[in-house]
């Protein structure tokens, strides 16, 4: 099992001028530690549980572009892109640009979006949940069409209509940037994983819950005729051990997950200086977690 890091705070004590240097340091620390994944949130406002809207929040894909320039091996993604935040044609172009400029290291993490406050705050339409899932599925179809270099014609959906699905240059990743769908909803989200995704990011509270979700995913894969083993499995860990520095406690929590074929556990520390935390906690976690497999 590999270790990923989800950067979710940008509250460096030095303020705005120090955010760039700290992100670059986090990228260097992640690669030195053997961390396989770096991600950021896709939000306009910082979450209430993480300091609130007055705390700093950087735009996700600009941040990943900066990290791409300061790393060379780690995979980069948004955990996860809200489908309502960008028109799907533009989103496909953004993800492609990240993939090209990072040397093929982009993952398109995507979900149905949920944070109504920031939509209302910045005047971005926030349709009902059913429609957001419809838009999510159309967005996935649009991205796949844009990444197919043999197809640049129109797309006609219920919510989106594109006259031309041209995307040049093509992504470096083959056949396209990895698609990761985040969430654990059994009727809609995991169905979309089975039909469209290369990877999933599951939010579960126990190995027993994970086992159940994977059973549901296997059922959806059977329905669409897909081998579930072709889907890269990741989970996000938000337990307090990553904030308290209790590495042994974290490893005890992880021990029950190793039998499920989890590729990466993504750690989400609530810290301002991620680079220092990676050196202190993530680096030894990489080595010791690998020993559990």
Structure summary:
The chain is built from ten helices and eleven strands. It is α/β, with parallel strands linked by helices.
Description:
The structure is a single chain. With 293 residues, this protein is α/β, with parallel strands linked by helices. The protein is 42% helix and 15% strand. The chain is built from 10 helices and 11 strands. It has helices at residues 16-33, 60-69, 88-101, 116-122, 129-147, 189-196, 207-224, 241-244, 247-255, 274-290, and strands at residues 2-7, 37-40, 75-78, 81-82, 106-111, 155-156, 161-162, 178-182, 199-202, 232-237, 264-267. The strands form 2 sheets. It has an 8-stranded parallel beta barrel with strand order 1-2-3-5-8-9-10-11, surrounded by 4 helices. Strands 6-7 form a two-stranded antiparallel sheet. The radius of gyration is 19 Å and the shape is globular.
